[in-house]
Design goal:
Number of domains: 3
Strand content: 15-25%
CATH architecture of the largest domain: 3-Layer(bba) Sandwich
Structural class: alpha+beta
Shape: globular
CATH topology of the largest domain: FAD/NAD(P)-binding domain
Distance between the termini: 37 Å
Length: about 500
């Protein structure tokens, strides 16, 4: 009988095991089971020949401090590195086959400066006029969970949705803006509308307040001294983080290539009966607590035998497939100026990619001085079939699209594709109500816990925070609850979120 079995060793499962060990000390009794041979889930870094290629996320948000603080706690503080600050603009939008600079001062979907929008050739004059009328649009008083698409269309007009907000949602959440829940993805816009009535005026006031006060942040590059980067990475790649966590865990309590088939009750959990965790092949272990740090549909299959209603609710969380393709070229073979972080592609352009990040411009130490590294994003809610093709096909798609968009015809000196089938959860309209129902059902099974990207935030910091909170909840069931309270207090205090990520930084930073 183990006190806790954690299923899934992505960043949420690793964090749960790490914080269990931290709060319970040398007496920590846990078992971390991972079905694959890889720790870290979508976090994977390839290094070789001077290149550093991220297959999944290439960074994490600075303002949500759980990842930042954990890196420092694990001794990675000297490896923290902010994104470079490029000359304005730093992000482009493909429109009518040409790359147009994003208007300066855009905060995701809302402008905070008037003149750059007026000067922009990206938005038509009717579109600019419609954006200007936003200050006269009233609050939403009828729809309790409006979609992102409906919100942007209502407040800023259809052109803003088509050219900026829509492709941003395809980049950040791999989703359809007319399906994604505003409340569950960007609740700060709800708050701004409720408080200021006008989204634009609210964002301008927010920006002014931020610039007037102190702005906390991570280590930044020497080139950006005195300025705070919205994104932080690690010099040797994001994979350094799961590797550092794994190095702190007891190797005897970590099992790779141990896929779990089912979890069933062993008597009454309230009376200490616990659960039986059965692995593929028939081997099983008992546990007082079980943490599911697996995708919701995987969790559904594991628990379906004893709670089909919960399994059905978990399957209601939609997942979409995505892929990334990294291509490296000799700098002398690239004719366009890479003076930015990359570009996003509206659906209306009819292209087969969603975005391209200019990785070696965005972060230092990603390519040799005489080379450049680009990363292309494929798939998502509108094009899952493209992301599920074989790696050679993905590389060919990326090459053809970069040829048409950027004029790159050279043969890449490096090409790596990563497919992530059904990997990105969609926070669609009704998500918050669905999660309440799921958590209410989970509460009827003492000792079962959910962690991971499907519930309360899909970024690395949110998954780490969820792992810490889960570890604390488990420890609270024991006699030494005050240590758990202290742990959660520290985590929650360090993760107070302020501000909104500028579109220029966020738009091509998806995983």
């Amino acid at each position: 009988m183990h006190k806790t079995v954690v299923i899934g060793a992505g960043i949420a499962g690793l964090a749960t095991a790490y914080y269990l060990q931290k709060v319970e000390g040398k007496d920590a009794d846990y078992l971390l089971l991972e079905g694959s041979s890889h720790l870290g889930g979508k976090i994977t870094t390839h290094a070789g020949d001077g290149f550093l290629v991220e297959g999944g996320p290439d960074s994490f948000l600075t303002q949500k401090r759980a990842a930042l603080d954990l890196c420092r706690e694990l001794g990675l503080g000297d490896q923290l590195m902010g994104s470079n600050h490029t000359a304005t603009p730093s992000t482009y939008v493909l429109s009518k086959g040409r790359l147009h600079p994003m208007p300066e001062g855009m905060m995701l979907m809302a402008p905070t400066m008037i003149l750059p929008v007026l000067r922009s050739r990206l938005i038509s004059w009717p579109g600019k006029l419609r954006m200007g009328l936003e200050i006269f649009v009233g609050r939403n008083t009828t729809d309790p969970d409006e979609s992102l698409g409906s919100f942007v269309r209502r407040r800023l007009g259809p052109e803003m949705l088509e050219k900026i907000a829509g492709p941003l949602m395809a980049g950040i959440h791999s989703g359809d803006p007319d399906s994604l829940s505003l409340r569950s993805t960007f609740p700060m816009f709800l708050e701004l509308e409720a408080k200021h009535r006008s989204l634009v005026l609210g964002m301008m006031k927010r920006k002014k307040a931020q610039s007037a006060g102190p702005h906390g942040g991570p280590a930044s590059n020497a080139a950006s001294a005195g300025r705070t980067s919205m994104f932080t990475t690690l010099r040797g790649g994001v994979q350094r983080l799961p590797e550092a966590i794994a190095a702190r865990l007891d190797p005897e309590r970590v099992g790779l290539e141990c896929p779990v088939e089912s979890v069933t009750r062993e008597g009454d959990p309230v009376q200490g009966g616990g659960y039986r965790v059965t692995l593929r092949g028939g081997h099983s272990v008992q546990a007082e607590n079980v943490v599911f740090a697996t995708p919701a549909y995987i969790t559904a299959g594991i628990i379906e035998g004893f709670d089909p209603v919960l399994a059905s609710d978990l399957r209601k969380i939609r997942y979409v497939s995505t892929a990334t393709v990294s291509l490296a070229f000799r700098r002398s073979e690239i004719t366009c100026a890479l003076n930015g972080f990359g570009f996003i592609v509206p659906k209306s352009e009819g292209r087969r990619i969603n975005a391209c990040s200019w990785s070696s411009t965005k972060f230092d130490h990603r390519a040799p001085e005489d080379s450049v590294l680009l990363r292309v994003f494929i798939g998502g809610a509108f094009a899952e079939d493209l992301a599920e093709q074989d790696e050679d096909s993905l590389i060919e798609i990326a090459r053809q699209e970069l040829s048409r968009i950027m004029g790159i015809t050279a043969t890449p000196i490096l090409a790596r594709a990563y497919r992530w089938r059904k990997s990105v959860p969609q926070y669609n309209v009704g998500h918050s109500v669905l999660i309440q129902e799921i958590e209410g059902r989970m509460a009827t099974h003492p000792g079962l816990y959910l962690a991971g990207a499907a519930y309360h935030g899909s970024g690395i910091p949110e998954c780490i925070q969820r792992g810490a909170e889960t570890a604390a909840k488990i420890h609270r069931r024991g006699p030494d609850a005050h240590r758990a309270d202290a742990l959660v207090g520290a985590i929650e205090g360090s993760n107070a979120i302020s501000g909104t990520v500028p579109v220029a930084a966020r738009s091509v930073s998806t995983s």
